[in-house]
Fold this sequence. Notes:
The structure holds 2 protein chains of 2 kinds. Chain A is of the alpha+beta class.
Amino acid sequence: MFDVAVIGAGITGTFIARELSKYQLRVLMIEKDNDIANGTTKANSAIVHAGYDVLQGTLKAQLNVKGNKMYEEVCRELQVPFKRIGSLVIAFNNNEIKLLEELYKRGLSNGVPDMEILSRERVLALEPNLNDDVIGALYAKTAGIVGPWELAIALAENALENGVELFLNSTVTGIKKIKDFYCVKAGNQDINTKLVINCAGIYADKINDMVSDIHFKMLPFKGEYNLFDKNAGDMVNTIIFRCPSDAGKGVVILPTVHGNLLIGPTSELVDSKDALQTTSEGLKFIQQHTKLTLKGINFGNVITSFTGLRAKTMLHDFIIEEAEDALGFINVAGIDSPGLTAAPAIAEYVLNLIKHRLGNIQKNEKFSSSRRPNINFMELSVEEKRKIIQKDPKFGRIICRCEGITEGEIIDVIHRKPGAKTLDGVKRRARPGSGRCQGGFCTPRVMEIIARELGIDITEVVKDGLDSYILTGETK
Amino acid sequence: MNNYEIVVIGGGPAGLAAAIEARKNGVKKILLIERDRELGGILQQCIHNGFGLHIFKEELTGPEYAERYIQELITMGIEYKLNTMVIEITKNRQITAINTIDGIMHIQGKAIILAMGCRERTRGAVRIPGTRPAGILTAGMAQRFVNMEGYMIGKRIIILGSGDIGLIMARRLTLEGAQVLAVAEIMPFSGGLTRNIVQCLEDYNIPLFLSHTVVDIEGQDRVKAVTIAKVDKNSIPIKGTEKRFECDTLLLSVGLIPENELSKCAGIELDKVTGGSIVNESMETSIEGIFACGNVVHVHDLVDWVTEESKRAGKSAAKYVKGESTGRYKVINIKGINGVRYVIPQLLRVKNITESINLMMRVDNIYKNIKFIVKGNGQKIKEIKRAHVAPGEIETIKITLNELTYRDYNEISVEIVKEEA
């Protein structure tokens, strides 16, 4: 019998699981995909928002500002890239300046520190590549950028090392209330658990409906993005938002923690939860809107495009509560923006709901808040590089030319918890194939390493999902 | 710090020819650095024939062509390191490289020859819409899987781009039992060699759709279907012209990009059109003592021209380290205009020309019955007739020393003029 089953191993699920691993609880994460962080967590803007945007009095406002403050500590503990680079909302006319003032006031009442309205000169001094007709901006210094899937993977690793269990490839198909516990049917297993936490992202409505008669509906809002080569990474220094207007919010332009440039998202309600394709309209929208903001941007430097689905509901606020008609079943749903920012605060909030339900829970005295350091070969000093190659020559073999990723780093992420078993799993953890050639040279090598380390045939190595085979067999 | 007279970066056809030529010109201490596990570069995966027609007057396969140079290099006793990656070059010609045996190496070269080749343009760079399943790969990667690793990459295949690798792979995959359903090309003409269109597509009844591009990819885990559509003259897909193919693979042959990350890190000036370094008649870059040759300078059509160009780089580097430096002579700028996309070299110092120099260039479209006009300071130096030119094929024009010294030129241009009917 588990104490808690967390359905969904995205950023909210992994934050909650890690939070619960600080207590003497038997916790299980259930994930439908072949790896964790495989839904919205792997395709979003990667922004830790300051919190001036969200409406006062909402749960979003409360948890956004709180979550933002929690980022340094957790990212330091788990060695995940996080940079507080600040954000600008830029204005091109007087109406937009008025909007900035409104946002500023809203920020104050939400408790956002370190905000300032900048003059044209100061905006351009900070961001010389913005179009010259910009006239001012709201500067929020506490906004930041993070590696979202790296964070979720690190949280999961830390949770697993502190005793949490994980079932992958386990789609939840039914939940039954039996006396004072639940039986969750996941994959081919029946899992008994006292509490169920629903972190199923865009599928949270489906999970809720298995248990509760109080329904909500997830509205998958599609967002398309372009990721640019690192040679475009210094086009901006901060996160650049446009003022929201009747024509929408435009696109956000920001550097990533790895030094690429990210532009997006579009926003479109779609009828399918599999609508992960990019479209020519979406890509055109990004290009047109970028040119309204930035001068001298070259779309020939795009290295990849991707789509994410926001987990929105009609309520425009997070749904984080125990279902009224199902005690012990806690929804953590509608976690769209600023969900990534709020996630650490959501975990604490959910912990309190759990304490309320389970009564007094004991601390896990053996909890360790850090994980084995991640190795990033290229960032080591010459002396450290020399030492690590001496210790393990595999760090002397560069597999990914573009990002400078060594065989040693790839082997490391395959053998961590939860280890990388797929091409994309390795890419999300160690980054081979995320550079400008997009795996053109290193894919065969990485597949060879995965096959060798896992003791499988190279034809069994998949890109991501179980059916995403890459090779169809041997040649004649 | 290890000291060498010449360090060659890259052990493909360019690096091999440059190193060999430098040794032939009397340079003793040469080091060639290769990142892969064998010498020969991409030639090793090009198991089809057609290499060496110009240099050896016979048809060799890629590995055979490479082997001749590898054997020569080994016979000459030129030092080389495999599985070794250069991670930094400075403008003072210091190199940092790593491998599993030596660890981190700091190497000083009197001269450096850059021969890193090129990489393939990806789906991202051409922004093809659709899902992101397995089964989308560049033609070169497919070639490596099939020809070197011995694995097939799909059963029903669409190819986007009619560059040479795409055409060669259409035939190769067909021979391996796959069905190549179509080759789509966004331009109104193919970017590949005419002989490849005939021998790789027409001979196997593979349809080539010119002025077509991919507008959608379907499939969550693996490619399920690819839709192509006709494009207008601005390359915008035309609604209503879509053709949908159920398939499991999309192969991309959408261009090659000289791989100049190391050149950028040394501060070498690059040409916006070629994506390679700007070079002079000696294949020397904007940094004295750093030379470049092969696909890292501009993407070639035939390896024979790579070899020829690289010999020039090797010879010039040899002269440089022996102190027979080419010096600060007057520099003529060379440029392509009116239909000529670029000319290599971009800079020329007449004092370094012994007899003649070959100008290499690519045109921007298919032209019939044209003349290339070479002008110096706006005045015609020479003209050459051509019945047919195409962007896929490099054109070469030989200019003699006499033609260059007839007047004191500051600038030379090459352009296309239609022949009067």
